[in-house]
Amino acid sequence: MENFIPRLISFLLFFAISSSTSTLRHRGRLTDSDDPAVDLHSISSSSSPSPTTFFEVRRPIPVPKSKPCSTLVLKHDFAYTYGSPPVTATYSPPSHCHFFGPSPSRIVLEWSAASSGRQFDRIFGLWLAGVELLRSCTAEPRPTGIVWTVRKDVTRYRSLFSQPQTLAVFLGNIVDETYTGVYHVNVSFHFYFARRPPPPVFDSPADLIIPISNSLPLNDGLWFQIKNSTAVQGKNVTLPRNAYRAAIEVYISYHSNDEFWYTNPPNSYISKNNLTGIAGNGAFREVTVRLDGDVVGAIWPFTVIYTGGINPLLWRPISAIGSFDLPSYDIEITPFLGRILDGKGHSFEFGVTNALDVWFIDANLHLWLDSKSSFTEGSLIEYQAPGFVPSLISNFSDLDGDFDTVASRTISATGWLKSSFGKITTHFFQRFDYSNKMKFSGNGSAQAVNQSIFYNHGTYAKNSSTVLHSEHVFQIFPLYVYIGTSDQDEDSYLSIANVTVGFDEEKRYFGEKIGFSYTTLRNLQSGEGVMHVKGNRVTSGVGSTRQVYGYESNDGCYFRNVSSSNYTILYDESGESCTKNSWFRSSGHLPIKRKTI
Ligand SMILES: *[C@@H]1O[C@H](CO)[C@@H](O)[C@H](O)[C@H]1NC(C)=O
Ligand SMILES: *[C@@H]1O[C@H](CO)[C@@H](O)[C@H](O)[C@H]1NC(C)=O
Ligand SMILES: *[C@@H]1O[C@H](CO)[C@@H](O)[C@H](O)[C@H]1NC(C)=O
Ligand SMILES: *[C@@H]1O[C@H](CO)[C@@H](O)[C@H](O)[C@H]1NC(C)=O
Ligand SMILES: *[C@@H]1O[C@H](CO)[C@@H](O)[C@H](O)[C@H]1NC(C)=O
Ligand SMILES: *[C@@H]1O[C@H](CO)[C@@H](O)[C@H](O)[C@H]1NC(C)=O
Ligand SMILES: *[C@@H]1O[C@H](CO)[C@@H](O)[C@H](O)[C@H]1NC(C)=O
Ligand SMILES: *[C@@H]1O[C@H](CO)[C@@H](O)[C@H](O)[C@H]1NC(C)=O
Ligand SMILES: *[C@@H]1O[C@H](CO)[C@@H](O)[C@H](O)[C@H]1NC(C)=O
Ligand SMILES: *[C@@H]1O[C@H](CO)[C@@H](O)[C@H](O)[C@H]1NC(C)=O
Ligand SMILES: *[C@@H]1O[C@H](CO)[C@@H](O)[C@H](O)[C@H]1NC(C)=O
Q: Signal peptide: which range, if any (predicted)?
């Protein structure tokens, strides 16, 4: 990863000035997840010798009872891979699976990995035919070893699996005498063939997926790298002329100076205090998706904390929400199809408002094709993406102060499209509300950030008489981070961190054939960690994390209540009952309104 170098440099820089009493610098250094402080040799030596299993709390993927047809596609040891091409393997539809009959009803990607020694959290991506299937972060090993498994439902990429394709994995790792952790990885696909169709999922998989990513060969991930607020990167693609529906799915991760963008102070604070080496540009970020230069959708990202983030002891063994399977974001572009079905190239590009080095972004264009005609036609009826400026209220003197940032925006588009299904009008809208309250106290030795993102979006498709499908999603991403540091002597300090991060979501779907369906998810983690840091090593410390996960849908429920402290699970309760979930029911509801259609 190119971002490794700047991090090393800033690390050395911090060292050179480590006698400064500004504990902000400790914050800057510690919140860098490539921080070598994540050396836990000294506190893990007395732990049991068997490998620790790390995990992210999620609902297990519901699969048919039948045994899957499985294929191991890649087995690789990621040692010194930084600056090398992605590791590739050929995926072939397994001959022992009956691919020539009905399509698999469920496809599951399984990443299983083991490591031991000392290593950073490494971001990685996995692509099939250039289409990204997984963006993730490695768990940080212990000397006694760790293992973890990520299972992801990849049924929506089904059209890729019927023919041979190149699988590529980029995981930029550096192994030397200090950072010894090699990642031993297996990648498998499991295909489930159910005799009857599975319960309705929100969408049938697309017929064709066009990657909006860099092409092999290259010595990096297939993602684009966005390093500043003016950079726009992407690709020109030509669409088949019989598409009747299109959605772009965007994968995002942020690193180095923007790994903790939500804690970045405004530049005025940095310059007034003559701070150097502190990432700024304030705490607001927006990813924009541009079609031929027009912003057709936005993403106000969920705050994934990687496994070494804030205090690495918090995430052992319960990993942060989204860290093992970063969320991707869908933007419906069907209203714009009429503009781009001309057989010519059209550009899909990405930018990041206020970006600092570096954001990794790419996307998959999911297309549904009209099998009964070779041309569809359409037109945009309405499109609005008004500009906006986040408001900042700033009140600081020296290193202490308050910063309140608030922003909102809407984007909407309506267009019609004529295919063998008739003339269908599709409306897509997004509404975002963001608030970030940041407080520095104790002469800059403590920072508290309280942020919320509200994201309300939906798609409605109808012909002149009937609603054919509609989807309405409401998400809330609450985040609270408190970091306090105190210097102990010239080269050591104490850090206290509290983190609360949540991912709440309510989805309502209506499909002409399947009727109404819904899912509701409330997923909340909170943790506290203390660590003593000397030089670049955590010499002692403890992290505790609690998580409550509640999922309800017409197709099943899942509940889990789990807590860990100092690598040990304190309690772990889970169930699939939809009725016993009193916490869930008493926790109030997301403010979604059933849209009358
Ligand atoms: C606050 O921190 C700055 C920089 O570390 C230092 O110069 C200053 O003396 C401190 N002020 C107080 C009141 O401690
Ligand atoms: C954490 O666990 C280790 C052994 O597993 C123990 O030696 C250490 O005292 C514990 N730390 C705290 C703060 O409980
Ligand atoms: C990978 O698969 C091999 C068998 O092919 C197995 O021995 C090994 O333990 C697996 N590794 C991981 C990390 O799952
Ligand atoms: C922003 O990034 C682009 C692409 O990486 C680069 O060409 C441009 O010079 C950068 N702009 C600034 C102001 O650094
Ligand atoms: C896309 O094509 C346009 C003109 O056809 C060209 O100006 C632009 O540079 C291309 N963009 C990319 C990302 O290739
Ligand atoms: C920042 O630097 C300027 C110019 O050297 C100086 O006048 C000012 O007092 C400094 N401010 C702080 C907070 O150190
Ligand atoms: C700015 O902060 C100071 C000190 O905390 C406080 O007394 C003052 O009321 C604040 N001003 C505003 C406008 O918030
Ligand atoms: C964060 O802000 C929200 C709403 O502004 C408030 O309800 C919540 O208590 C705050 N959390 C903390 C930890 O201050
Ligand atoms: C609208 O769709 C419904 C359901 O598919 C169909 O029965 C009806 O004929 C369609 N109406 C028009 C005007 O195409
Ligand atoms: C941090 O969490 C601890 C334990 O829950 C709590 O006692 C403390 O008040 C919290 N501090 C802050 C600043 O949020
Ligand atoms: C989770 O379990 C803990 C310990 O048993 C319990 O105190 C807590 O109330 C539970 N939380 C929920 C939401 O069930």
A: 1-23
pTM surpassing 0.85? yes
Q: Tell the residue nearest (CA) to atom 4 of ligand 9.
A: 466
CB 450 near ligand 8, within 6 Å: yes
Q: Tell me if 443 CB under 6 Å of ligand 1.
A: yes
For 198, other C-beta atoms within 10 Å of its C-beta total 14
Token look-up 């300090």 returns 493
Strand 345-353, strand 328-332: pairing: unpaired
User: Over the stretch 450-496, which tens digit does the pLDDT of each residue have?
Assistant: 999 999 999 999 999 999 999 999 999 999 999 999 988 878 889 99
- pLDDT tens figures, 562-579: 999 999 999 999 999 887
370, 244 contact by CB (below 8 A): yes
Centre of ligand 2 from the C-alpha of residue 566, in Å: 6
- Cis? peptide before 317, omega within 30° of 0: yes
Rounded Cα–Cα distance for residues 61 and 55 (Å): 15
Q: Check if the beta carbon of residue 341 is closer than 8 Å to that of residue 376.
A: yes
Residue 583 near ligand 11, beta carbon < 6 Å: yes
> Hey, what are 525's tokens?
């983690």
Smallest CA separation from ligand 8 atom 3, residue: 450
Question: Among all ligands shown, which has an atom nearest to the Cα of 76?
Answer: 3
Q: Which residues pair with 482 in a beta bridge?
A: 448, 498
The string of DSSP letters for 117-129 reads S-----EEEEEET
